[in-house]
């Protein structure tokens, strides 16, 4: 039904556009004064007045219609309906499912209740159809009135372009406001729940504590009933994996960018860069599969083999440790994450290197420098602020990664600088804490919002610093 309404509304809008535009053209041909706008603007103006109010009616009814039907029918439940909760609510849900052509739940009703359920479903179906037809009639009435108003305003003395541009400005402002309000809503939700968490757990304990075990007690005498909410192990794990990722992505991505910008021919650049950027389109869960099924076993086999070689020599302890290395480790997650970040770093660095003025290169060549000397002593220093900004943006991307760490690094919260250990990160713990049915009244669940707020602040700081560096770069070399 909604698709049919939109098709009819589009056809009506197209007809309104043609009539409005034709009216202005005929008025000009009849000897009237020259129109203040092009005929197309008069047609677009009429379409706006015909389509926008009608679309608002359709959207409003689509959103509020089901709730209105539920409110009206909930107050008219039959006498045979269950009288206790949750069976009474389930009766309403089953009636709505039957009314929409779905299947009811597995709840067993008595014959009178079953008959009452069918009658109530028919009532919901009738009310839904009535509301739908009324909304359809209202939408086309509004479209007809708006189209007539737009047609009447299709006169040569009307500045149609100004009106259309005001509508466009309003739409653009609405999109901008929606983005801003969404960001504000996310921040406020994080802050609100984080305040509730920090009312129970001290912020100092959260930011400086070294024990992370967000458990809650089921009984007062339960062993381990006091949880630990020190997030330092999570911060250490996040930093360790991020460091491994950047040690992988930064040199490879930067060298690839230098080759593409300075050494590659047009033909080589035309096929190397798209192939390299294919990595950016691979879902992170696929990288997680690759890390868990390929990279992890390969690294474990290599370290186990190295440990077997060292166990009989003076490095006996190191050999035993390497022989016990498992698939899940910070090195695996960081390495695969670095592969994921290579196109991010190389693409940004390539654009920044290409933005360095050619006059700097020509001046270096004129002084007798070679191409490698020019790149090392002129191009890279000139592009360094922009490259640094790209690296910081890559760091913020690495800090927020979840799937690769979940599948390749494990879930052990520990303070370690050893990349061969299993660690966890802030994002992984957020996912773990909010997985499944949770109550948002316990410190265990609310700690996810404290972690989210901390991660948001850190990422925001990194992005602001990166943007400041890039802006400084643009001021120098644009």
Brief rundown of the structure:
The chain is an all-alpha fold. The protein contains 16 helices and two strands.
Record keyword descriptors for this entry:
single chain, 478 residues, MetI-like fold, two-stranded antiparallel ribbon, 2 strands
Describe this structure in words.
It is built from 16 helices and 2 strands. Strands 1-2 form a two-stranded antiparallel ribbon. The two termini are 54 Å apart. The chain folds into 3 domains: 2-156, no CATH class; 159-200; 225-477, MetI-like (MetI-like fold, Orthogonal Bundle). The longest helix is centred in the first third of the chain and has 42 residues, at 111-152. It is mainly α and 478 residues long. Helix 1 packs antiparallel against helix 2 and helix 2 packs parallel to helix 5. Helices cover 75% and strands 1% of the residues.
Secondary-structure map:
Elements: H1 2-29, H2 39-74, H3 87-99, H4 111-152, H5 160-200, H6 203-208, E1 212-213, E2 228-229, H7 232-263, H8 266-277, H9 284-310, H10 316-323, H11 330-354, H12 358-366, H13 371-399, H14 403-408, H15 426-433, H16 443-477
Antiparallel strand pairs: 1-2
Helix pairs in contact: 1-2, 1-4, 2-4, 2-5, 3-4, 5-16, 7-11, 7-13, 9-10, 9-11, 11-13, 12-13, 13-16, 15-16
- Give the DSSP E fraction (strand runs of 2 or more residues): under 5%
Number of structurally distinct domains: 3
Distance between the termini: 54 Å
Radius of gyration: 32 Å
Supply the helix-strand structural class. mainly alpha
Number of strands: 2
Spatial shape? flat
Mean pLDDT: 83
- How are the strands of the largest sheet arranged? 1-2
- For this structure, what is the CATH homologous superfamily of the largest domain? MetI-like
Any idea of the CATH topology of the largest domain? Answer: MetI-like fold
CATH class of the largest domain: Mainly Alpha
Note the quaternary state here: single chain
Portion of residues within helices:
over 70%
Major beta sheet summary? 2 strands, antiparallel
Poorly predicted tracts of residues: none
Query: Strand-and-helix sequence, N→C?
Result: HHHHHHEEHHHHHHHHHH
Number of helices: 16
């Amino acid at each position: 039904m909604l698709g049919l309404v939109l098709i009819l509304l589009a056809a009506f809008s197209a007809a309104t556009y043609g009539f409005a535009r034709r009216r202005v053209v005929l008025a000009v041909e009849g000897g009237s004064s020259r129109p203040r706008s092009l005929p197309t603007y008069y047609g677009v103006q009429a379409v706006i007045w015909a389509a926008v109010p009608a679309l608002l009616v359709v959207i409003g009814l689509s959103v509020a219609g089901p709730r209105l039907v539920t409110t009206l029918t909930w107050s008219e439940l039959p006498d045979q309906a269950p009288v206790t909760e949750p069976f009474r609510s389930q009766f309403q849900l089953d009636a709505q499912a039957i009314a929409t052509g779905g299947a009811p739940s597995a709840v067993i009703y008595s014959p009178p209740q079953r008959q009452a359920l069918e009658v109530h479903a028919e009532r919901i179906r009738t009310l839904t159809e009535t509301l739908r037809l009324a909304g359809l009639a209202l939408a086309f009435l509004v479209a007809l009135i708006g189209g007539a108003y737009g047609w009447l305003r299709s006169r040569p003395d009307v500045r149609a372009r100004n009106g259309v541009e005001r509508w466009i400005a309003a739409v653009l402002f609405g999109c901008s406001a929606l983005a801003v309000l969404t960001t504000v809503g996310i921040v406020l939700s994080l802050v609100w729940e984080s305040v509730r968490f920090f009312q129970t757990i001290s912020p100092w304990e959260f930011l400086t504590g070294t024990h992370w075990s967000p458990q809650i007690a089921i009984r007062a005498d339960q062993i381990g009933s006091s949880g630990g909410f020190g997030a330092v192990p999570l911060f250490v794990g996040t930093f360790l994996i991020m460091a491994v990722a950047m040690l992988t992505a930064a040199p490879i991505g930067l060298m690839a960018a230098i080759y593409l910008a300075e050494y590659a021919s047009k033909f080589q650049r035309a096929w190397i860069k798209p192939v390299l950027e294919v990595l950016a389109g691979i879902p992170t869960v696929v990288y997680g599969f690759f890390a868990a099924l390929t990279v992890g076993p390969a690294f474990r086999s290599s370290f186990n083999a190295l440990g077997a070689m060292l166990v009989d020599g003076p490095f006996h302890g190191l050999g035993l440790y390497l022989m016990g290395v498992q698939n899940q480790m910070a090195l695996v997650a960081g390495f695969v994450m670095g592969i994921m970040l290579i196109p991010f770093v190389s693409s940004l660095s390539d654009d920044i290197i290409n933005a360095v003025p050619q006059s700097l290169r020509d001046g270096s060549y004129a002084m007798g420098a070679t191409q490698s000397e020019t790149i090392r002593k002129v191009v890279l220093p000139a592009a360094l602020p922009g490259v640094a900004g790209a690296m910081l943006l890559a760091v913020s991307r690495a800090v927020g990664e979840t799937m690769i760490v979940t599948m390749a690094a494990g879930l052990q919260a520990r303070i370690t600088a050893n990349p061969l250990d299993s660690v966890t990160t802030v994002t992984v713990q957020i996912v773990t804490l909010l997985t499944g049915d949770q109550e948002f009244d316990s410190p265990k669940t609310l700690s996810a919002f404290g972690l989210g707020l901390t991660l948001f602040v850190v990422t925001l700081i990194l992005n602001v610093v990166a943007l400041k560096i890039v802006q400084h770069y643009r001021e120098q070399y644009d």
